Amino acid sequence: MISFMNDYSEGAHPRVLELLMKSNLEQNIGYGEDVHSEKAREYIKKKLQREDVDIHFIPAGTQTNLLVISSFLRPHHGVIAADTGHINVHETGAIEATGHKVIAMPGKNGKLTPDAIQKALDYHRDEHMVKPKMVYISDTTELGTIYTKAELMAIHAICKKNNLLLFLDGARLGSALTCKENDLELKDIVNLVDVFYIGGTKNGALLGEALVICKEELKEEFRYLIKQRGAMLAKGFVIGIQFEALFRDNLYYELAEHANQMAERIAHALNAMGYAFYAPACTNQLFPILPNALIDKLSKEFVFSVQEKVDETHSVVRFVTSWATKEEDVDKLIQCLKQQ
């Protein structure tokens, strides 16, 4: 079976593994204070074009979301997110288990808008309800769409006006940054949000996310919070080494670009066959609407997820490509689609 289920089915890119093996018998300082983690921070800061940020390496995406939101909100605060947002639908209530309500608002193709944020603020007016204090967005979104620079600037403006923290989940940030329609760079993001992370788990690393704290007031004693919430690895250098490998050159971008290119080939084929998409196709997640009979046929040779029913004869499926997706596997999928 060929998998288009997700972008974390494979291990790590060979160049990441190579550096892990090369440093395997080194004796490194623990807890992310090693030379490899420092090198990785230096490389990332060069891409950000800012030195005044704090960078912490966290094992996983949900853990990073939980750490950030629970650390920066007071007990009566809530976080505004798109109704399709990862913290709302894919984290088993992790955020709300901490006592912080996720204020889910309708999104536009998975994206949160300033109007939706304003509606949430208008509704939560007094102390009888939770107080919105943070806005959570992800790039790419759960539907594979991306934020433009203008859209992020507009969200930044409403957050600044209303004293809201802006947190960007970058689990698939590589895919967003290398999308052909994208006009955002890391140097833009770091100046428009208060905190964000660069995902490694879904872009060539074995595991790990690079959390970037941009707002000065959020930096103090954050390592205490990392430790308290179980996110500080004794062997933190294992994540640092991987980000060193990903960012010492353009490997991080090259891997994401490959994933996007493989998805683009599938999207072009689907468009040529006249199939519609549930959300615009521009990154490594595709959401075509296919006949159920074709879905059954594809399921015999490929692994992918069926998202939801559209009508009695059609459903939305999700195809995901990765840094490791083979061209011949894409060819096989396209050929099978043509042989319906």
What does this structure look like?
The chain is α/β, with parallel strands linked by helices and 340 residues long. The protein folds into two domains: 2-7 and 252-338, Aspartate Aminotransferase, domain 1 (Alpha-Beta Complex), CATH 3.90.1150.10; 14-249, Type I PLP-dependent aspartate aminotransferase-like (Major domain) (Aspartate Aminotransferase, domain 2, 3-Layer(aba) Sandwich). It contains 13 helices and 13 strands. The strands form three sheets. Strands 2-8-7-6-5-3-4 form a seven-stranded mixed beta sheet, sandwiched between helices. Strands 9, 10, 12 and 13 form a four-stranded antiparallel beta sheet that branches. Helix 2 runs parallel beside helix 10. The longest helix is centred in the C-terminal third of the chain and has 22 residues, at 251-272. It is globular and about 60 Å long. The two termini are 18 Å apart. The relative contact order is 0.17. The mean pLDDT is 98.
What's the layout of helices and strands?
Blueprint: E1 2-3, H1 14-22, H2 35-48, E2 54-58, H3 61-72, E3 77-82, H4 86-89, E4 102-105, H5 114-123, E5 131-138, H6 149-161, E6 165-169, H7 173-177, H8 186-192, E7 195-199, E8 209-213, H9 222-228, H10 237-247, H11 251-272, E9 285-286, E10 289-291, H12 292-298, E11 302-303, E12 305-309, E13 314-320, H13 327-338
